[in-house]
Amino acid sequence: MEHERAIELLRSSGALLGGHFLLTSGNHSGRYIQCAALLSRPEIAVEFMEEIAEKFKGDKVETVVAPAVGGIIVAYEVARLLGARALFFERVEGKMTLRRGFHISEGERVLIVEDVITTGGSVLEVRDTVEVRGGTVAGLASIVNRSGGRFEPGVSYYYCIKMEIPIYSPESCPFCKTGSPVVKPGSRGLK
After folding, report:
1. Which of 69, 13, 19, 12 is nearest to 37 (CA)?
2. What pLDDT, in 10s, does the model give residues 109-154?
3. How far apart are CA 26 and CA 163, in angstroms?
4. Could you count the other beta carbons within 10 Å of the beta carbon of residue 76?
5. Residue 177 included in any domain
6. Most buried of 27, 38, 42, 145, CB within 10 angstroms?
7. Domain harbouring 82, CATH code
8. What is the count of structural domains for the chain?
9. Is residue 122 part of a domain?
10. Is 106 helix (H, G, I), strand (E, B) or coil?
11. Does residue 116 fall inside a structural domain?
12. In this predicted model, which residue has the larger pLDDT, 29 or 97?
């Protein structure tokens, strides 16, 4: 997908936000990609899912998994397009866990997806858990890569759009210095 088209889809869905945001990592940013807004518009979001599915259609993916919450819809739609099973991992006592009777079999080919990757911590934890359970990671994919090159998963990684968005430690955050209130828009920590 061309960068301009991806930006147009993110904007038209209301997913591109400006302000002062607290990220899951504890860092701050002046821009946030609220993929929940994108995913609430299936007629727009489908272009991203089709692109991811197209990239992995020849990789014999049996199961598409995602960390909850952001990646669940991505996993479902990409799995549907690939004719695969869709599962999600949940954080239980601080660890990514398969619940609800979900399982991964020895040798099962798994694609891990996410809506936005910033540090990639959740998908790397999912990757490690898939491998511990005997699954084979066919690759990783996300709608948005905003990692700034910090995310290196060690397996094939595909993203629909790369966005360079500055991230600040709380101590160096220019928005904090002006007294701008910080907002926590993500899903980490939901109970």
Report:
1. 13
2. 999 999 999 888 899 999 999 999 999 999 999 999 998 888 888 8
3. 19
4. 18
5. no
6. 38
7. 3.40.50.2020
8. 1
9. yes
10. coil
11. yes
12. 29
DSSP string, the chain: --HHHHHHHHHHTT-EEEEEEE-TTS-EEEEEE-HHHHHT-HHHHHHHHHHHHHHHTTS---EEEEETTTTHHHHHHHHHHHT-EEEEEEEETTEEE--TT----TT-EEEEEEEEESS-HHHHHHHHHHHHTT-EEEEEEEEEE-STT----SS-EEEEEE----EE-TTT-HHHHTTPPPB--S-TT--
Enclosing domain of residue 139: 42-164
**C-alpha span between 132 and 2 (Å, rounded):** 36
Six token digits for residue 56: 């992995």
H/E segment holding residue 97: strand 95-97
Give yes or no for a contact between 96 and 121, defined as CB atoms under 8 angstroms apart.
no
Q: Which pLDDT score is estimated for 97?
A: 83
Which amino acid is it at 57? K
Q: Is 21 among the domain residues? A: no
Terminal-residue alpha carbon distance, the chain: 35
